[in-house]
Design goal:
The protein is built from no helices and eleven strands. With 124 residues, it is mostly beta strands. The strands form two sheets. Strands 2, 4, 5, 6, 9, 10 and 11 form a seven-stranded mixed sheet that branches. A four-stranded antiparallel sheet has the order 1-3-8-7, with no helix packed on it. Strand 7 (68-73) and strand 8 form a beta hairpin. The N and C termini lie far apart (40 Å).
Length: 124
Amino acid sequence: QVQLVESGGGSVQAGGSLRLSCAASGRTISMYAMGWFRQAPGKEREFVGAISRSSGTTYYADSVKGRFTISRDIAKNTVYLQMNSLKPEDTAVYYCAASYGGSYYLETVKYDYWGQGTQVTVSS
């Protein structure tokens, strides 16, 4: 199995940028599709974006398309979420997840492993 640890969260003003990292251990990320999700207080966990296992194709939620970018460094066994032009509504705990399925899935149930999350707070 794989263990996932997110980092890079913090507080930023609207319009700013952050880069989140998801460091994997135990298995190589090349075995999984990797997804990013977020959960704001009182809301359900929602899909942010994902990268497929084989081709590295990325897919994003409409709310972040054009602002967020997912990438991976297989040698470092790490997945990244670059977040630009941040908005107050991006405030949430951000989670990375790994899926054996290989494709980019929007549903949380498709993912087999989760990190503990990292807080992102965007102030206006």
